[in-house]
Design a protein that fits this description.
Helices cover 71% and strands 0% of the residues. With 231 residues, it is mainly α. It has one domain. The longest helix is centred in the middle third of the chain and has 43 residues. It is elongated, with a radius of gyration of 25 Å.
């Protein structure tokens, strides 16, 4: 096989791989958006349509986690705010820094290939180092955002299927590709949002009356408590 034949084969293979990766990413994005939207809408979270916006979906995920904390502990958390800003900063810095880094590397390669003197290459070293420092800071911000995302995912899993939350978060850490499909599969579950059943004490109804009492005192997820914070 000639050099050009091998090159064309390589390009064809990479094209197929790119199409497959893009298709899987699109399907995962749709499944995750449907899952987050369904959960947010049913639980009365404000602006559930943000689940379809790349950065806005992080606000919805954080809101689901914050609402779960409030329902179960009465504490008002701000994970949605932290997650939104961290994700936004990471996104903005990435689209700004990555093209600059690529351009600097390309310039260094061109200068070296065409025999430019060291003084020309050294002119690029200083901005290159500054970009590397920004990338290091970006990595730290991204790591913090990933940790908060995992915390929020665990809260989401626990709000939907409490008994499976630990296993789901472990699998999500090891195989992150399952996250969108796990959210989609759990979109109709709210088991963790209700208080744990307790045995009736003296003075409380028993038998069939007890079940009626518990049903009357469980929160209705279709009609959110208006006294709750605006998640």
């Amino acid at each position: 096989m000639s050099y050009y034949g091998a090159y064309e084969t390589y390009n064809a293979i990479m094209g197929v791989v790119s199409i497959l990766v893009s298709a899987i990413s699109l399907v995962a994005y749709i499944f995750q958006s449907i899952g987050l939207y369904s959960i947010a809408k049913r639980r009365g979270i404000k602006a559930p349509g943000l689940a379809w916006v790349p950065v806005g979906s992080m606000w919805i995920l954080g809101s689901i986690a914050d609402q779960f904390d409030y329902v179960r502990t009465g504490q008002v958390k701000k994970k949605r705010v932290a997650l939104l800003w961290l994700t936004l900063v990471t996104f903005i810095l990435t689209i700004i820094v990555v093209p600059i880094l690529v351009q600097l590397i390309a310039n260094i390669v061109v200068y070296a290939a065409y025999g430019y003197g060291p003084e020309y290459i050294m002119q690029l070293v200083s901005p290159f180092m500054w970009v590397l420092l920004v990338i290091m800071a970006l990595s730290i911000v991204s790591l913090i955002a990933d940790i908060i995302i995992l915390i929020c995912l665990y809260k989401l899993y626990k709000s939907c299927k409490p008994n499976s939350a630990v296993a789901l978060i472990i699998f999500s850490i090891i195989f992150s590709i399952i996250i969108p499909f796990a959210i989609f599969a759990l979109r109709k579950h709210d088991e963790g949002m209700y208080p744990e059943p307790v045995q009736p004490q003296r003075g409380y109804p028993t038998g069939p009356q007890y079940n009626q009492y518990m049903n009357q005192n469980q929160p209705n997820m279709n009609q959110p408590n208006m006294n709750q914070p605006n998640f």
